[in-house]
Amino acid sequence: MTVDLTGDSPPLDPSLLPRTAVIAIDGPAGSGKSTTARALADIFGLLYIDSGAMYRALTQAALSKGIDPGDEDALAAILVPANLVLKPSKGEVSVFWNGKDVSLAIRTPEVDATVSRVSSHAAVRANMVERQKVMGRLGGVVMEGRDIGTVVFPLATAKIFLSASLDARIERRFRQYQQRGLDVSREELRQDLAERDRQDSERQTSPLTISPDSIVIDSSELSLEQQNQMCARACLVNPTLDLELDTDLETAIREIPWHYRLAYSFFNASARFFGLRQVGNEGGALPRGCILAVNHVSNWDPPLIGSTFHRYPVHALAKAELFKFWPLGPIFRWIDSIPIQRSGFDAEAFREAAARLADGANLLIFPEGTRRAIGHPGPVRNGLGILVQATGAPTLPLFIRGSYGRQPGGSPKSPLEVHFGPVIRWHGVQALLRDHDKKEVSLRIGNLCEAAFRELQARSFAAYPETEYEKELGARQLKKFARRQEQVFRN
Ligand code: DC
Predict the structure, then answer these.
(1) What is the location of CATH 3.40.50.300 in the chain?
(2) Ligand 1 binding site (Cβ under 6 Å of any ligand atom)
(3) Could you tell me which CATH class the domain 245-489 is placed in?
(4) How far is ligand 1, taken at its centre, from the CA of residue 146, in Å?
(5) What is the value of pTM for the model shown?
(6) Alpha carbon 264 to chain centroid, angstroms
């Protein structure tokens, strides 16, 4: 895939990348993957995972036990029960093998010379790939290696293949060794790198190949800064799902029951009192059976969306707790809301939602599953992907801004807006399901929805910059979120 990542591109906006993004970087030894992967983790706030370090840790353990690097069974026997942990700390990643810090021991010329052989075995790779998939199951990671875009995360948000000439790579490795005080000649490095290239690309199981949907960047002539910037831009290109955006919408005006009209009039008058603006809804048309996927910041979001659609009945998925209270419960049922249990997977609610969509109703969902930090939408949970896979329903992403902490008549702490995205038709999804795991497809669908939220947010900020109030509130909530993410990673 060829994309213009240079020239007079506008400044990079890191907030556009979904929090659930999975960035895959592959390439040969010495192409600068680690440096760039670290930089991307820093730019986008992702977790950096060095998959090569995992193969190195196994190699180091095998060398220290005198295990033959060609003995697949013996290698698998120490790998399968091993406790292999990558622990991020201050921009570096420490590697622990059965509790022992091996971060330095895995970077020796002996390990360099043996690791390609160790990593060529199918049993070793199967186990490593499983571990790597688990690390990326919630997204929010940048992983580098040889088979990340092809095998580990075939549905990655962005795939980059970093290449560089053999000479450029020798020079980089030579300097790295010098800095560490290790004495290796350029000629030795040439032999080692050429041999590793050969082994990595000729091995039987998942050899180093360029995935057709990856963006190839040759870094031989690039400064580090250029390389990082180009790769960061590549992360925002988002090429891997065949999306068709709807521009020609059928107008699906239906008979609107009187109670909807009543609810709509009430909510619309209130929303106008609070100064609601709708952006990007010029046509006002919506396909039948459309999912309205909305970011969630406040309890006022559902009526706000209700006030926005007067030509279509909108059924909503709402948390089951709300149905317990009088008069909320009867009112919710009256306006066709569907209760959903938020702990675990509520199959009944999903079945009902799918049936309503099939019947042509529009369905409001908050795909983040709960309220999220202001200014930091996402991550989007699996539910949206499950519904899309079950129904194929087109999806309209909507972005709400300013519904939290607002007072009528007070000075606005932020504008109150609902931004309309383009309707997404998920034509590529059925084809993906033939080859990929449902969960991976769901993550990818969620990813695209989150990307839409972020794009709409960026448009809103471009017109009315984020206020101090929004920033402060968002930062506080985000810290809470980061702690949660770290815990998940540790488990
Ligand atoms: O990126 P590195 O040099 O630290 O990787 C060490 C070796 O591990 C490399 O020669 C090939 C192997 N490797 C692999 O086979 N698959 C990966 N995903 C990562 C590394």
Answers:
(1) 14-241
(2) 29, 51-52, 55-56, 115-116, 119, 145-148, 196, 200
(3) alpha beta
(4) 6
(5) 0.74
(6) 35
